[in-house]
Amino acid sequence: MPAGPAPQPVTPTTPAAGTLYASGTQVVPVSGVSGTGFYGGPWTIITQTLNIDYGRVPRLWLSGTDLDLDSASKQYAVAQTKIAATFTADVTIVSSSDYYSTSSVYQQPQTFEIYPVSADHLGNTYGALNASCMGPMGSIKTKMPFILRKLREASDDQNYPLGTSSIKGSNFQFGTSSIHAGFNSQDQDSGLYNFPSWSWHNGSPDHGMTNPNWGPFSWYSTIVDPYTMQGGYSTSGEYIMGVYTFIDSVGTSIRDVNVESVPSQRSLGAMPYQEIGGFIGIPTYDPNRHDFT
Question: What is the pTM for the complete model shown?
Fold first, then answer.
């Protein structure tokens, strides 16, 4: 990949401070720092993070043909572009007897920063980056983790089981196959930047014209909204709500256990209803903890 400038963070939100809630009423924020005060719990403390690596990938239409008795050629156009992503998520639940200045519930929302890269893996650029852009590739990182601290209750043993749940997942499958669908799933990190593997989609049934033997092969397979943009990609066509929807849908996919493992454990090209047991996730992850205000 050609050398380029290091990605700089873009904060799509103004992070909110941690907030204290007492009897359902929001009051002045208080510190979430332990070691001060007279209230020693026991507490249930939940933290949640999500980090995403992504690449925007093309999908093609067959736009024209030239055909006669001794020659043939076809022309393709980019019909739309979508986000392919791998991501890591963690939810940690602990019980603590540290001292705090209040016994009320303390909550800090989860906020994010975008680290867009101005060029794709081939060195091509598509316009200037701005605060609403994911760019052709990059990463999204948790800036402030979600934190919830509450007095521990008997029901927490079932509702908030102690421990750390961590996954590395993806919104697609990537692999090689000699036919339209099959096995041989590979690590999706490689598929983020493999444009030909996506070229069979959207009405281009002759995938072999650009990818002999149907490989490599990429396939969207989860409920993640891939932030679709119609036509050829330009940064000027991006919009911030598309970014928010994408991040939230990754969180929803994690919560609903609809994430491909890396590499996928399901047959390449299998529809979700065919091999639903191969998906992973974290049921205690909650996208409602994301904050973009």
Answer: 0.80
